[in-house]
Each structure stands twice: as C-alpha cells, then as structure tokens.
Specification:
Elements: E1 12-15, E2 18-20, E3 29-32, E4 37-40, H1 48-57, E5 65-69, H2 75-78, H3 81-87, E6 92-96, H4 100-104, E7 127-129, E8 134-137, E9 140-146, E10 155-162, E11 168-173, H5 184-190, H6 200-207, E12 214-216, H7 225-233, H8 245-262
Parallel strand pairs: 4-5, 5-6, 6-7, 11-12
Antiparallel strand pairs: 1-2, 2-3, 3-4, 8-9, 9-10, 10-11
Helix pairs in contact: 6-8
Length: about 260
C-alpha cells in the first residue's frame, strides 16, 4: 500500500469508554468494558502497526483485547485479525455466519484483489453471529443485527457508550453499505446470485428506526470520522453526538443502491 503513513489518524475518545484507533481506509473502534477491550474491526494488515500504535497511545495494551468483533469479512476490515490474535491470545473472534468461509479462505470473496495483494491471513472464527445475537463483556452489550448485501454476513451493531459521569450515548454502526460488492459485474465475476443484493434495502429500512445518538462508520468517510475527531482533540467532546445523522446515513445508503440498480448496474 502506497504512502501508508498518510493513512494515520491520531486516536481519540468518541464518547467515554468508546475510542477510535483506526486509519483513514479502515475504521477501528475500541470499547473499554472494564473487563477487557472489545475491538470492532482490526483493519488492513498493511496499516495494522498504526492501529497498534494508537492502542498504546490510548493507554491500552493489545493483549487486553478480549473480543474482536467484525462488521464483515472483507480484507480491509478483517485482514489483520490473525496478526492481532498473536498479540491477544485470549481474544475471541466474532463474525456474521454468512462470512465464515470468507475469513477461513474457503472462497475468493475477501476483496484483497481490490488492493492488489495476495492474502493468506485467514483464521477460524470462534463465534458465528446471527440476527439478534448479543456480545457481552463487562459493562457493554452489543446488539448484532443482520444487514446483508455488502457481504452475506454483514452485521450492524448497537450499544451504549458511557462516560465517567455515567452519561450514556447509544451508538449505531451499519456494518457495510458500500455498493461496490453489490454491482452486477461483481456478482458475475464471482459466480454469485444477484438476488442476494435484494436484502440490502430491507435491512437498512429495518434498522433506520433504531435510536442512535452517535452514528459510527465502518469507514472514516461514512460519518466524517476524521474532522469530528479533530474537533474532539480540540476540546469538543460532543462532536459525534447527533440524533439525526443515523436516519440520514441510512437514507443516503438506500438512495445510492437504488440509483445503481436503476442504472442496471
């Protein structure tokens, strides 16, 4: 990957026990549960050293990670999992059941070819997530809802972040709204049934009504992570708090898909 250092994002707290430790191309989030860390997506292998640096700068140790929870199985989200497991041997891995073979290396759907790399960092997940499952650790419980389309096993997450005064903010993250892997050309290339993508919009409409105070992004561009993070580091602790952003994000994702489908793509 070119200009890797330019992918660096200074780590910062989003709200209380929820912190950002990711990079420009791959969002990574830490939740300090009081009984170990949850990490949502370890990101790309090429930028994993930046994630590790951010974890240390936030005052944590990689070995403190107890749960590695994946939004989906693509290379830019799950590619560094095996490397993290070498540093956090007590961590359990969680992924949507539909993406199990993707991270096992039993199919060619990891999207590593998009980055021009050969990838063999596959792993065997500990827990296969299904719709309505919860992941609990310490003071945190994550509700996992199935929202397929971007991949068969894409999951969306909802949980409370809490600050030192006990003030909670409900966080929501759609696990993958990119239309690149829902185009007819992608389905044809990989021999997939394009009917799978018809689950995408119903999944979004289903979760739109969830109450969300903080809209999180599986990529930094999804929710303006970088500019908001700079505001946080400048002293604006409520930069991520916006009860209207979640519904707007879902509507934009639906519109992007419908435009693509309307063009016959």
């Amino acid at each position: 990957m070119k200009s890797v250092w330019k992918q660096r994002v200074d780590p910062f707290p989003i709200w209380g026990n929820l912190k950002f430790c990711g990079t420009v191309p791959s969002s990574c989030h830490i939740i300090d549960t009081g009984e170990g860390l949850m990490l949502i997506d370890p990101g790309l292998p090429e930028t994993f050293y930046l994630v590790l640096q951010s974890i240390w700068e936030l005052g944590y140790k990689p070995a403190d990670v107890r749960a590695i929870i994946h939004t989906h199985g693509h290379y830019d989200h799950a590619g560094a999992t095996r490397e993290l497991l070498e540093l956090a041997p007590e961590a359990k891995t969680y992924i949507g059941a539909g993406d199990a073979d993707m991270v096992r290396g039993k199919n060619d759907l990891s999207c590593a070819e998009v980055f021009g790399v050969q990838f063999d960092g596959f792993f065997e997940p500990d827990v296969f997530l299904r719709d309505g499952d919860t992941v609990k650790l310490g003071n945190t419980e994550i509700l996992c809802l199935s929202t397929p389309g971007h991949t068969p096993g894409t999951m969306s997450f909802f949980f409370d972040a809490v600050d030192s005064d006990g003030v909670k903010m409900r966080c929501g993250m759609h696990g993958g709204a990119g239309i690149n892997s829902m185009m007819l050309s992608y389905y044809a290339q990989h021999g997939l049934d394009p009917a799978q993508r018809e689950e995408f919009v119903p999944g979004l409409r289903r979760i739109m009504s969830e109450h969300v105070d903080i809209c999180l992004g599986s990529h930094t561009f999804c929710n303006g992570t970088v500019p908001k993070g700079k505001k946080v580091l400048s002293g604006d602790r409520t930069a991520f708090v916006d009860q209207t952003e979640w519904a707007v994000y879902c509507e934009k994702a639906i519109a992007a898909y419908e435009t693509m489908a309307g063009r016959g793509q």
